[in-house]
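Q: what does this look like with adenosine-5'-diphosphate bound?
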Amino acid sequence: MFQKILIANRGEIALRIIRTCKEMGIKTVAIYSTADRESLHVRFADEAVCIGPAASSQSYLSIPKIMAAVEITNADAVHPGYGFLAENAEFAEICTEYGIKFIGPTPDQIRKMGDKITAKETMIKAGVPVVPGSGGLLQDLATGHKIANEIGYPIILKATAGGGGRGMRIVRNEEEFEDLWNIARTEAKAAFSNDGMYIEKYIEEPRHIEFQIVGDQFGKVVHLSERDCSIQRRHQKLVEESPSPFMTPELREKMGNAAIAAGEAINYEGVGTIEFLVDKYRNFYFMEMNTRIQVEHPVTEEVIDHDLIKEQIKVAAGIPISGKNYYPNLHAIEVSINAEDVYADFRPSPGKITSLHTSKGHGVRVDTHVYAGYTVPPYYDSMIAKLICKAQTREECITKMERALDEFIVEGVKTTLPFHKLLMKNEDFRKGNFHTGFLNTFNMGKPNE
Ligand code: ADP
């Protein structure tokens, strides 16, 4: 087992990883930018190294600085968390060259899944259904037009290097193709320095249902059932739950097998997520694979009662997995509490948290790095906490979530709490009647209404 793990991340996920390391008797090293000096992950790690100024490019994304921190602290493994360098094959490769274990898949596995077109090709070979589409990079606008006509509108233009919903545009007819093509390419170029685009059939009113998988170093891959992440705003997940209210035992079997086939196709090592779109007829299509721990992993942890970070560390240390799939025993829902103003188009609302009370009680979990007096910096993502509730049934879980949301008090910054409170009361949400476009027509109303 590892002696000391450096956590190449910040915020709640860094703290989450520190907690498991402590329970496993592994020493931890936190890294932080000058903007994060007061963050809890810095306080709770055994050692902490300041690696640079606030800008991520000079701190959390700077491989040389992180490797220097690894060297001076004598860490023998690196946990990348999610975001930042978590899916950066070069970083994984450099760690390996230094003899440091990167807790995650191999550089080759990251590359195979990081490029969405290559990933789709791999899945087709493995017999996993994929969304019909161009099957490769679009050479030019004219080819794009031609393929879109063949597939039939609406289509979705996607950046091969895409992530976080960027570089993606829904095109409803031929007339708007050219404009949206230009916008998506410019966005992709700016965000990923890669404007390679491809086309997919736009699936109408789909659900986003993803499967958690774990693979070990001996070629064994299992699934840990699904998470429904259809409650999204501009393709960004806001609420996740397991099991999916849309799931049937038959569909779970089929999708679970497809997820395992996807992992086996690349001999996947580590925890990973296979994302699918599911249409209203319960046809499912592979969308992409995330080769890291996800923000929403606690949902799965709660319904199968397993620590996924521990699994991840054990697999990285060469311990074989048990080889059985896991099925949910309970219902869990996670909501992201972001420092954003929901009445002003979810605009970020950084600043000092003057007062904080987090929800407590049976079946309630809060993962957060903030506290009263903490200043939310404007430089990183705006998530300040994840609130996770679990109960015997979905209905009880929603009721518990309403209770927990009422107890969660944040003063000083605006948060997404009012949105979640409204959502939990929504008839369609309560019935499990929703798809990825659900929030497009969701009415936030006015403050204090
Ligand atoms: P990113 O990597 O940027 O998050 P994804 O490929 O995971 O992009 O897609 C994000 C979201 O966009 C999905 O959850 C879904 O809501 C929507 N989406 C993506 N592809 C399609 C498609 N072919 N049809 C309909 N919706 C799609």
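The first helix runs from residue 11 to 23. The domain at 132-201 is CATH 3.30.1490.20 (Dna Ligase; domain 1).
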